[in-house]
């Protein structure tokens, strides 16, 4: 019995190890409705409060800006990255937009403190291994490592306030369970352009440290 479980686990592990960076067809994701390609993941476990997901290593194009509020930095960050994919790179090529767009949000920031906001676009599969160099020295590449994340999803518009409310709800639940995760920052994750009005999908992520803690299964008797 134990042996069979072990072998199944090993087969699963080998399968995971042979998969390329998981940037794939958006048709495989429920959230990416406006781009051809999307960041894909393996669901580890879930309940109504949160999901645990596993992400393969991926390469992103990134820029950062100091600001008092996320909203003040967003336009600058987005324009810089958009210029890169719109041809401001050494090869002069246009690169497809993907989803999601992620922003790192420092946790220990008071209202009146400047904080560094980092925005990243996921490079499409065609540019994962050798993306053209940016011409703007404020634009650079980052490698997201193989990681597990705790995820809470929400609708509507992603703002620093909504991201803070959602990350507080998630961190409270994780702390109650004694889950371990990186408390220095969370990712604010957006899947939709401002043009999309209905069924918007956003997420907050905390990076798991150690073994991920799966949420307790829902109690079917409680309503
Ligand atoms: C993505 O999947 C859809 C539906 O399965 C298919 O029509 C489309 O050609 C695929 N796109 C790419 C780039 O593979
Ligand atoms: C994108 O590049 C094209 C030229 O290829 C240019 O006409 C257009 O204004 C650029 N868009 C933005 C938003 O910079």
Provide the gyration radius in Å: 18 Å
Report helical residue fraction.
Answer: 10-25%
Shape descriptor: globular
End-to-end C-alpha gap: 36 Å
What are the bound molecules?
Answer: 2-acetamido-2-deoxy-beta-D-glucopyranose
What is the name of the CATH superfamily?
Regulatory factor, effector binding domain
How many DSSP H or I helices? 3
CATH topology: Multidrug-efflux Transporter 1 Regulator Bmrr, Chain A
Structural class: alpha+beta
Task: Count every beta strand, where a strand is a DSSP E run of 2 or more residues.
Answer: 12
Identify low-pLDDT runs. Answer: 1-19
Name of the CATH architecture: Alpha-Beta Barrel
User: Could you describe the largest sheet, including whether it forms a barrel?
Assistant: 9 strands, antiparallel
Description of the molecule:
- The chain has 223 residues and is an alpha+beta fold.
- It has one domain (2-213): Multidrug-efflux Transporter 1 Regulator Bmrr, Chain A, CATH 3.20.80.10.
- The protein has helices at 2-18, 70-85, 160-177, and strands spanning 23-25, 37-39, 42-46, 51-55, 58-67, 98-99, 101-106, 115-122, 140-144, 147-154, 185-190, 202-207.
- A nine-stranded antiparallel sheet has the order 3-4-10-12-11-7-8-5-9. The chain has a three-stranded mixed sheet with strand order 1-2-6, with no helix packed on it.
- The radius of gyration is 18 Å and the shape is globular.
- It starts with a helix and ends in a 16-residue tail after the last strand.
- It binds 2-acetamido-2-deoxy-beta-D-glucopyranose (2 copies).
